[in-house]
Structure to design on (173 residues):
């Protein structure tokens, strides 16, 4: 069975990405779980994949909220649609949108096809992880200002502290 290697990058910083390998029959729901795990999201929430072109303009939707595929429906079901059914060209692209507390966008590109399925490995398989996962907060967990205040207090030196450390207000520097 063919294997599909996808690169999933965070829309706001393409240096933060994960490479995930899927086997041929795996669905978009399985792909969604792998992406969420790879980027350390723990909260189940609605999500959608969108087919795109090379400029990331979205087309057909594959949604986690659609339960079955119906002819003429506005979106396909992620639970019923295998990823391989929509991979019809090299470098196929998708956009993944995840909606827990705010909307997160990820770009997905098919970067390799292979027939070397390893029976000892379990797919989907996270094979590469670059960059720290985007920071996710919810209002109930921690206040952003609270964390910044702690950091500022830690490094906030008074004029006396500065002079004790050998810093002065000389104009020549």
């Amino acid at each position: 069975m063919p294997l599909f290697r996808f690169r999933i990058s965070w829309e706001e910083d393409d240096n933060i990405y994960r490479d995930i390998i899927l086997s041929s029959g795996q669905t978009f729901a399985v792909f969604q779980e792998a992406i969420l795990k790879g980027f350390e999201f723990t909260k189940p929430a609605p999500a959608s994949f969108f087919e795109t072109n090379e400029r990331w303009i979205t087309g057909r939707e594959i949604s986690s909220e659609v339960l079955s595929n119906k002819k003429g429906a506005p979106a396909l079901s992620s639970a019923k649609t295998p990823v391989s059914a929509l991979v019809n060209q090299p470098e196929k692209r998708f956009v993944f949108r995840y909606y827990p507390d705010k909307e997160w966008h990820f770009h997905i590109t098919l970067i390799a096809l292979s027939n070397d399925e390893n029976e000892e490995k379990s797919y989907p398989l996270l094979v590469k992880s670059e960059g720290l996962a985007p920071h996710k907060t919810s209002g109930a967990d921690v206040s952003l200002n609270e964390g910044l205040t702690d950091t500022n207090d830690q490094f906030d030196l008074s004029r006396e502290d500065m002079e004790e450390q050998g810093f002065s207000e000389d104009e020549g520097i």
Observations:
- The CA atoms of residues 95 and 107 lie 5 Å apart.
